[in-house]
């Protein structure tokens, strides 16, 4: 992939105003921000009967017939189906229009929410009215139990709810997508105030990170889930391999967009990724010649690619740290404007929340290939995050499909002289983790108390027994950040000087980690696990969002855990 092609395939792009830190005038006569309630609307057609709760204002209630809710401008709003104790949908900073895309971390979850909502009422009437027994189910009712089990990144977790609503199947994804697109068409999803920081010539720095979530090749029907970090491999390869998250810094100069030195998006996946890791461990130099991977000057042949085989349906993605741009590169604004979205309005100097929040399609050529994209974008004024979720199909010159991918990208304004030109989510504080598994009515609840140097974990942990029985067991442990870093919380081990923090891209990645009872140095892992993470930032410090972890056993989702910061 061209190192700048990521700009054309942005799937979730996040732009953060607060990263720059605005100046303060010190004028005592300035009018303070309004604290009067403001109205927002939840749209998948207007949805009546969703419960919402806002913090810090404490305002709460149910959306009305127009889908309207009332909160304060600085609030983070939590949405639920079935009341506060029902199905948790997600959090969003206040915005005038909220759709499934703003409260979920990926296109799949957004579509699952749309399918559920549209199955509860005839959405073709222009509104969705949630039935009373779903909107306000009785305590301890089967309906409430079914609602609490639903995790939007796994529609199978809603099987019990499907029975409760007496439906044979959910509205199809195609129908849901078409209806949602029609509902949002023509609606201004935000204000039209120009965001000067995103205009060409602003002199700002922009961090852009991309996480490619899935890959499909040729006419092969297998859709591979990408794994971006592997903690099962020996430390020397872990330290040398920059795993599959691309990140680059852009400078919005007067005459051109500058791609700063240090950028790289040279990634290897599937067999090539395994070959790359083996070559690194054997002390060799990895390269690809004529579409064939080769390892030169290896010190040994201790490891082979098959030592790093991964479960069916998954593939490793690594980034080659030797393929780094050593010099700044300038790109004409008119050229990047062809990528649309942020880069189009950057060139026109008219970026606003309204024109950065859209659904659409685009088509362009890149290195002799035709790329067709379907995307959803939105911009959050509270976090400064611009979100663009994209499905990209690449065709050759004769129209044959070469590959298809879904991607998630993040862009945000940064100060290149602070925190290595990066923004972080700080975990310090208490996070409530709630765990469910399909077919089990119990919910594990564990508090993670993140301190300066260690984490106290206390609560009721969900376990499964042979035969499928699930139980809750007391948990009370203290662990170090290094211990968590060797497990699914891999980001605690890679951000220099930021022990308690993670980047937005890291919280939207997948990791393979070792669950052996005893890890022996130099021995490959015997019991690897795969865990997928998703996160939607909310609040001015980005830490009021919902972090979701999906654990996979034999290629199938098992435990699903949501983390929310409580203080």
From TrEMBL:
Residues of the signal peptide: 1-19
Keywords of the record: Signal
Annotated protein name in UniProt: Chromosome segregation ATPase
PROSITE patterns to which the protein is assigned, alphabetical: PROKAR_LIPOPROTEIN
């Amino acid at each position: 992939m061209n190192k700048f092609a990521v700009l054309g395939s942005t799937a979730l792009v996040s732009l953060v105003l607060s990263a720059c830190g605005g100046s303060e005038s010190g004028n005592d006569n300035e009018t303070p921000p309004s604290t009067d309630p403001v109205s927002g609307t939840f749209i998948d057609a207007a949805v009546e009967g969703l419960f919402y709760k806002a913090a810090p204002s404490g305002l709460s209630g149910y959306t009305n017939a127009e889908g309207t809710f009332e909160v304060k401008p600085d609030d983070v709003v939590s949405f639920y189906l079935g009341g506060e104790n029902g199905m948790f949908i997600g959090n969003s900073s206040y915005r005038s229009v909220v759709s499934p895309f703003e409260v979920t971390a990926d296109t799949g979850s957004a579509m699952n929410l749309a399918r559920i909502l549209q199955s509860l009422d005839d959405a073709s009437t222009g509104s969705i009215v949630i039935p009373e027994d779903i909107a306000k189910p009785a305590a301890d009712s089967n309906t409430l139990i079914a609602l609490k089990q639903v995790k939007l990144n796994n529609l199978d977790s809603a099987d019990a709810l499907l029975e409760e609503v007496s439906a044979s199947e959910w509205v199809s994804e195609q129908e849901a997508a078409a209806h949602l697109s029609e509902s949002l068409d023509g609606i201004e999803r935000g204000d039209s105030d120009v965001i000067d920081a995103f205009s060409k010539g602003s002199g700002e720095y922009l961090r852009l990170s991309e996480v490619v979530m899935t890959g499909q090749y040729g006419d092969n029907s297998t859709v591979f889930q990408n794994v971006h970090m592997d903690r099962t491999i020996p430390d020397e390869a872990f330290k040398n391999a920059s795993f599959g998250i691309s990140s680059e810094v852009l400078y919005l100069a007067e005459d051109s967009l500058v791609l700063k030195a240090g950028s790289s998006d040279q990634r290897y996946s599937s067999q090539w990724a395994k070959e790359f890791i083996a070559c690194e461990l054997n002390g060799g130099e990895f390269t690809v010649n004529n579409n064939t991977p080769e390892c030169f000057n290896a010190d040994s042949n201790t490891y082979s690619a098959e030592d790093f085989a991964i479960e069916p349906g998954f593939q490793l993605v690594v980034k080659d740290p030797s393929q780094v741009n050593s010099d700044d590169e300038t790109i004409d604004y008119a050229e990047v404007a062809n990528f649309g979205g942020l880069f189009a309005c950057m060139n026109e100097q008219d970026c606003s929340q309204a024109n950065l929040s859209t659904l659409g399609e685009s088509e362009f050529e890149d290195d002799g290939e035709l790329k067709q994209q379907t995307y959803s974008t939105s911009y959050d004024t509270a976090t400064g995050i611009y979100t663009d979720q994209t499905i990209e199909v690449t065709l050759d010159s004769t129209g044959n499909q070469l590959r298809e991918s879904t991607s998630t990208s993040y862009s945000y304004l940064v100060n290149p002289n602070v925190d290595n030109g990066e923004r972080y989510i700080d975990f310090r504080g208490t996070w409530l983790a709630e765990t469910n598994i399909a077919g089990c009515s119990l919910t594990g609840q564990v508090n993670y108390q993140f301190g300066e140097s260690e984490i106290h974990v206390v609560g009721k942990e969900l376990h499964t027994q042979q035969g499928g029985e699930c139980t809750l067991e007391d948990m009370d442990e203290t662990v170090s950040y290094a211990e968590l870093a060797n497990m699914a919380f891999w980001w605690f081990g890679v951000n220099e000087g930021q022990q308690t923090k993670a980047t937005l891209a890291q919280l939207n990645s997948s990791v393979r980690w070792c669950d052996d009872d005893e890890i022996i140095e130099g021995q490959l892992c015997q019991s690897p696990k795969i865990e997928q993470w998703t996160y939607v930032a909310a609040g001015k410090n980005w830490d009021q969002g919902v972090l979701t972890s999906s654990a996979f056993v034999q290629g199938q989702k098992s435990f699903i855990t949501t983390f929310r910061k409580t203080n």
